[in-house]
Amino acid sequence: FNSMDHADFQTKVYGKFVGTNPIHADSYPSVARMDAELVAMTASLVRGPPGSKKEINGESGADDQVCGSVTSGGSESILCAMKASRDWWLDRNGYGALRNLMKALPWRKGTVKPEIIIADSAHAAYIKAAEYYNLRMVTIRVDESTGFRLTAAAVRRKITSNTAIIVVSAPSYPHGVCDEIEDIAALASRRGIACHVDACLGGFVLAFAQEAGFARPRFDFGLRGVTSMSVDTHKYAMAHKGTSVVLYSKKEMRKYQFTRITDWSGGLYISPTMAGSRSGAVIAAAWASLLAIGREGFVAQTKHLLTLSERLWRGIERIPELKMLGQPDSTVVAWGAADPKALDIYRVNDAMTARGWHLSALQRPAGLHMCLTPAHSEPVVDQLVADLREVCAEVLRATSGDEEEGMAPIYGMAEALPDRHIIGDVLVAFQEASLDI
User: Fold this and answer.
1) Number of helical (H) and strand (E) elements in the chain, helices listed first
2) Which of 48, 58, 266, 416 is packed most tightly, with the most Cβ within 10 A?
3) What is the pTM of this model?
4) How far apart are CA 286 and CA 298, in angstroms?
């Protein structure tokens, strides 16, 4: 949270609605109204310039058609959008006689799955979606040559007749950079493919960047071809965990997200998201957070965050042992070792952890990132840069025998093992251990 006052305010609102459930809209009409208004307020930020009109995959569209639903977090928003996008595409492309015949042929089994194109920097939830919804995942490697951004040229080379969805990030979680959203969305539009913008992390920052005085790439529904978007309210909208909003360019797409059951003995049933029962308390808290902060508050917050982001990456650029992993567009700043053979960045992370910092480790390539929040300040950023400079020197002086503890050996092993299934087994064992008493 940006202050203890806001945290206390969120908790008080939460407490007043702790027993509510929007699935029973007739019992809790105020929560149902908050649910709808939370979607409307979020949609108003990403519709695009006033009066913008566009073409959505061959059909005329207008900025006032944007609609959506409240979910429990970014992953659920992504899963809802992927389900809706797949079914929307299949309804237009997937049920023809020829396609069904090809699916039935033994030697063509599995070759007509709907495909999803993502960068390897896209959120892990898209891999979940591919597993859940029987999508064939087409992954494009991003690297230093493109500033760790997914490019339209790379996407164009991967499109096939089975391509159903293309995902772009605003920004990506690992490197904090925006993909080539405008060009990729236009490409998707020309080919009748759904284009999802993942703005879970950056939605409530990038939407205010221009007003805050920063030039950033567009990611809104005013761009031709953008069909859906995920925007987390429990990140920079300063709301309680967990709420997010999934948005669509038009109701025609949103309806594919719904689950409707007409023959259940328990009665007629429809659910807008993956969950049945939902907490009205977190919806009320998110709704209240947006109203309490207001547009001016979000613009001021964005100016603070993007100023800190620029201060951090400029500071890191002055450390000779480090290099930036992309130039950040939002609040995530990523860096790695200028010479990975000389400096083990994971040992740097362990040394920073010992000093009280909590950085996120990246891989392929090895790196670290810092996600800045409204609680951070210029003195905090300056101290981070100073500690990084000192720690890099310490790690270079240290011997390899000093690295027995911490995360460095684990990530070092993961990088060295060619069989990723072994790493997966280790992760499962870790998860099992954490769930056991």
Assistant:
1) 14, 15
2) 48
3) 0.89
4) 14
